[in-house]
Amino acid sequence: MKKIVIAILATVVLSACDIDRYPHGSMDSETIVSDPDASLQPLLNGMYAQLKSWSDPMHRMGEYAGDNMMIRGSSTDAFYEFISYARTPNNYRLTQFWNSGYKAIAQASNIIDMIDEGQSAEIDNNIGESYYVRGMMYFYLTRAFGRPYYQNPETNLGVPIVNGTPDDVINLDLPDRATVKDSYEQAISDLKKAEQLLTIDKSSIYASKEAAQAMLSRIYLYMSGTYDSPNTEYAQLAVEYADKVINSGKYSLLPRDQFMIYNTFIPENNAETIFAIKRVASEFSGYDHYYGVGGMYANIGGMGWGEMYASAKYISLLDETGRNDWREDSYNMVDARAAFIRPTYAKDASTGEYTEVFRFIKEDGDVLNYVQAATTRSGSTITCTEGDDTYTLTSVDASQEIYSINYKDGKTYTGVIDNYITLNRVYPQFYIIKASLEGEESHLHSPVISRLGEIYLNRAEAYAKLGDYGSALIDLNLVRERSIVGGGYSSLDASNASERIDKERQLELAYQAERSYDVFRNGKDLTRHYPGPHQQFETISADDYRVTFYIPQDAINSYPGTLTQNPTE
């Protein structure tokens, strides 16, 4: 039987008589319909398999375009475009994201179209899993390639809606991109259908009723407008779907000490995880561990490139309520989320001791750079030396070893006494381990799609947009006080809700591919005023054309119909 390869689905078989059930080969529709019980699991396995290849560029697109990380220098890898905002349509990682997303949509759609509902609870649940994956894919694709929802969703373009195999694959003419509004409505429709059909409890590596509800809570939050101009209808729906997840009683926030090692738990054994894309160590044999998303954030046990680090902006947020100290002899995580950062302290080769330094960030013209100046103590006086210049430190908070100096450029800089951190080029290596060490396996990581911490923050933001600041404060502090003992806010109101809730989302959801989308969907500017090779003083507004990624040119070139590109300026 002839297989038709269509560009938008990128090698997904759309033949009316064959289904590509990657990576397991093909299965004809008659076999599927006549024996759905035997057929469904292999088909579902193929659908879930697409999420593995999809999740890699999904993470890089969402996280690298934000302000939680920095890279040591420019790179020839296509992911550098996500960091630099030098958008192009000829990016193989974009193509991988698009292709894998639409493969998952195609495989989910073929299951939905070929299997009748009502045969058994098990079959209905399997169909519900397919609706979940399809709805999730439409949402993720739309938020990447479509503009934020508050910006004219009735006219701005989302993504093509292509559900299943067309009847006539010979004279195929697929539709152009639907509007953002219609794309969101497709995702919502699928997820509501999933919510209805998903009745069997499985582990968090499978779609569930609560996973569908969690995704609906996020989607409605994305539709809820900005803090200045909220859409209260959608904010209320975000609250209602968050309520469903929270009130199910199936999930719980991990205690602080367990949350600090959240990344090491397999998702099936994590009480906070609602849905994660399961990865296993055998998928990353040998040096291939380098190529997991955690491989760019750290080198662990000789594995990983270790070329991206926590940004100074993110570290500053972690330190806002008190300095986090990673030194062995004074280890103290004021904010539990600092446990996902691991500086590479270096001992002196001759003495075997750490070198004490005063670390601060200075301005070199229009460039920000780290300085690690060796310290000398004489009684209560502490000095530091950079080159031929020596400075006396002035106490800002001696108990936390925070000091300031009057620098030779006439400016006053504040920093901390710490041990010397190994440099990569000129940047201290603040390794990130949140996407590594699952099961203590180097950079093994099952990407988290939804977890309970996010759901509380979804509800907090939605409550704030509804003007219910008391309820918003309760949810906000539930998450905040888990990480910062006694760090809850005493009040929340229209003057501070936006700043405080968004800051908590940044702290809590860092390295989960949410940050850049969170900034722009609320109409805010992205600024990255910290060391790194990026444009340090560039402001990217929510109206910037670069907020959306380009449709991959390969998809446009071979699409059977018109596929409109995003604006280039």
Give an overview in words.
The chain is an alpha+beta fold and 569 residues long. Among the domains are: 44-248 and 547-558, Serine Threonine Protein Phosphatase 5, Tetratricopeptide repeat (Alpha Horseshoe); 353-420, no CATH class. It has 15 helices and 19 strands. Strands 10-9-8-7-13-12-11 form a seven-stranded antiparallel β-sheet, with no helix packed on it. Mean pLDDT is 92; it is low at 1-26. InterPro entries: SusD-like_N (IPR033985), SusD_RagB_dom (IPR012944), TPR-like_helical_dom_sf (IPR011990).
Helix content: 25-40%
Strand fraction equals 5-15%
Q: Give the assembly state of these chains.
A: single chain
Integer average pLDDT? 92
Which regions have little confidence, pLDDT < 50, spanning 5+ residues?
1-26
Record field, number of beta strands: 19
Keywords: Cell outer membrane, Membrane, Signal
Subcellular location: Cell outer membrane
Protein name: RagB/SusD family nutrient uptake outer membrane protein
InterPro entries: SusD-like_N, SusD_RagB_dom, TPR-like_helical_dom_sf
Describe the secondary structure blueprint for this structure:
Elements: E1 18-20, E2 26-28, H1 29-34, H2 36-64, E3 69-71, H3 80-84, H4 92-114, H5 121-145, H6 180-197, H7 209-222, H8 232-247, H9 256-259, E4 273-276, E5 308-310, H10 312-318, E6 341-343, E7 356-364, E8 367-378, E9 381-386, E10 389-392, E11 394-397, E12 402-406, E13 412-419, E14 423-424, E15 427-428, E16 430-432, E17 448-451, H11 452-465, H12 469-483, H13 497-509, H14 515-521, E18 526-527, E19 539-540, H15 553-558
Antiparallel strand pairs: 1-2, 3-5, 4-17, 6-16, 7-8, 7-13, 8-9, 9-10, 11-12, 12-13, 14-15, 18-19
Pfam family, one: SusD_RagB
Family: Belongs to the SusD family.
Domain RagB/SusD: 272-567
